[in-house]
Amino acid sequence: MARDVLVVIGVGGMGQAIARRCGSGKKVLLADYNETTLDAAASAMSADGHDIYIRRVDVASAESVSALAEEAASLGQVTQVAHTAGLSPSQADSAAVLAVDLLGVALVLDEFANVIAPGGAGVVIASMAGHMFPPVAPEQQHALAHTAARDLLQLPYVSPEQLSEPGIAYGIAKQANHIRVRAASAAWGKRGARVNSISPGVISTPMSQQELNSPAGDGMRAMVAMSATGRMGTPDDIAAAAAFLLGPDSSFITGTDLLVDGGVTALSVGAPAAG
After folding, report:
1. In angstroms, rounded to a whole number, what is the distance separating the alpha carbons of residues 210 and 52?
2. What span, in angstroms and rounded, lies between the C-alpha atoms of 5 and 117?
3. pLDDT band per the 50, 70, 90 thresholds, residue 128
4. Which percentage of the chain shows pLDDT scores above 90?
5. Residue spans per domain, the chain
6. Nearest alpha-carbon partner for 125 in 41, 214, 11
7. Coil, strand or helix: which one is 28?
8. Strand runs labelled E in 46-201
9. 188 φ, ψ (degrees, to nearest 5)
10. Which of 118, 111, 130 is nearest to 60 (CA)?
């Protein structure tokens, strides 16, 4: 019996949770830049009975992402794609953050638009940080939506020279993810498929632990403490949202972003003015 293919790009905490939540009965293609992480995730999921395939990928390389999409299509009908790969501000400089978090998302959206099966769906993991920066100007939004992926980092307002602070580069990249997903929904729709993004808040993953141990950590803990839910999120919280957006219950949802942040963003935009 032919089985559908689930592709998970980035196999950290959220990627593995999505793979486990959505992978039963499917061929699961795991992809990551870090081969040690990739092998460990594959071994653990294989031991639990999942049908696992692996491929190392550099999401900032058009050739690497194209090869990944081709391999996914060779396995069968690609019905679900979850792109979770990313770098946080404490992990890398602004050039690397923009290459992975902005260019990488654009390349994945473009390449998998060519292989996603009719009725399929994709989800991109963005961030609540994208909602916390003022919206870019309309002409910049248009350019971020429609500039060819290979030329994106040539736009002056998203160049590493312009966005030299990694935290700002990260927030703008995540805002660009929202814009790029909205635009990509048209191309995916021509295939009879859907694509959306998820903007997590502070999720308990190794990446978040690095951020919590950085100079930004106190501010993050304060936001979580004052939020409506009063807790950090878990990878399973994100996997549940991804399963919804990748599944049949969201068949009328495409080109949008789902905030899964425990109310942190609502707190930041809904607080009463002082005075």
Report:
1. 29
2. 10
3. very high
4. 80
5. 5-260
6. 11
7. strand
8. 51-56, 78-83, 116-125, 194-200
9. -65, -35
10. 111
Question: Is a pLDDT exceeding 60 seen at residue 38?
Answer: yes
Structure tokens at 210: 């690095």
Helices 166-190 and 138-146, packing angle to 10 deg: 60
Q: Residue 34 and residue 40: Cα distance in Å, rounded?
A: 10
Length of the chain: 275
Residue with tokens 């790029």: 180
Say which DSSP state 76 is in.
S
Structure tokens at 40: 């460990």
Mean pLDDT of 116-136: 95
Number of CB atoms found within 10 A of residue 56's CB? 14
Number of DSSP helices (H) and strands (E) in the chain, helices first: 11, 7
Q: Which residues of 154-166 are buried (b: 16+ CB within 10 A; e: fewer)?
A: eeeebbbeebeeb
pTM here? 0.92
> Strand order of the sheet with strand 194-200?
51-56, 27-32, 5-9, 78-83, 116-125, 194-200, 257-260
Question: Which tokens is 114 given?
Answer: 């060519």
Q: Are 169 and 160 in contact (CB under 8 A)?
A: yes
| CA gap 38, 41 in Å, rounded | 5
Q: Just list the catalytic residues.
A: 170, 174
**Per the structure block, which two tokens stand in for 208?**
């978040």
Phi and psi at residue 14, to the nearest 5°: -70, -40
Class of the CATH domain delimited by 5-260: alpha beta
